Amino acid sequence: MPIALFPAGCYAVPAPIPRSGSSTIRLKASPEFALVCASIARPHSDERTARIVALAAAGMDWGCVERIAARHRVAGLVREGLTRAGLPVPRGIANRAHHTTLSALKNAGEALRLQNLLEETGIEPLFLKGSALAIRAYGSIAVRDSIDIDMVVAPADVARAWTVLNQAGYSMTAPSRPLPPGALRTYQTISKDSVHVHSERRVRVELHWRLSDAAGEAGMPPVSDHRMVEVPGSGALRTLADPALFTYLCVHGSGHAWARLKWLADIAALLGTSEDGGAGLWAAAQAGGAARPAASAIMLANAAFGTPFPPGFVPPRSLRLALLNRLALRVMAAGGGARELADTPWNSVVEPSATLLTLSRWRDAWSHVRRVAIPAEDVVLLRLPAGLSGLYPLLRLPLWIWKRSPWSPRKRTA
Predict the structure, then answer these.
(1) Where are the domains of the chain?
(2) Reduced to 3 states, what is the DSSP secondary structure of residue 241?
(3) pTM of the model
């Protein structure tokens, strides 16, 4: 039977999701989903630990708990929460958490290596999420799941960064082949990143030149938004300062409809370690034009983990905010919390819808629609002059047929 995650006397008593502008929402979930939320909530407290123990004592389908932890990629955080509560950790969660630790250590070392290689060529990369975020939010790289390395460089440095990655043993998988300058500029307006894989090290890198499709045309954040985070015993990684980091995480998570609890856990951790209770983070998000994504993050973190609202928090009165939160609750709790977004009938429309709900300017919305209308791989296969890029939507069907034909360049180079 579904339960309210935070009943009377525990953290917060949210009201149901109602009219736009309400500051609280209510998330009803299975006991297993509630246990996962209680285990990954930050900061730790005796009250949260007691909540974990009480949920476990009431009876638990531990196989379901394992599936939820795997689907939301929070096994390391769940293991830590159960251990703090003095409860045995199911083998499936323990194994996944162990893999999380090994992968995090490998990715941290590889991120430092790539940072050094890029800096030798005059490129200063900025690392998003991953090891830098784990250290900042949780104090350890060993508990936060990260399947790849996300880093951003200035748009003008992309071609040189591709060369460095190639020399470091990485094969570029998206785009499927290198692009000349003109085609690269067009590709950069359609896509926000490229993908590179090191087959021997089994590491995947996403190289960004724009933080997200919901962030308009902005490129590399200014130096004033950078900070260095120490990787114990190894060096330091360049990442975003807390206000810019919080804003970025809110935009990123809301653009994916908060499909994974992992992203909300990051928000809760940053709010929980903020000296002013998150007031400065909320103010920075508003100043950066991300009030709606940030309000969604704050409200959902309160519903899932009981995270207190920042002092002075008043969410925008917005129908789009209410719709975004409804969508997020539906996605994150699908199948009792264990069902992947890719396995739902609404998979193809969730992220485009969520992104449109978060955009604050019509110009950004139009840019996003344009990106959706032009598959990035079409720019790779047919390199139209920049002045003719508006023809790509008209050529989408012929190109779709060509890509599946025996004459497709993609097949010849596979």
Answers:
(1) 3-154+209-373
(2) coil
(3) 0.88
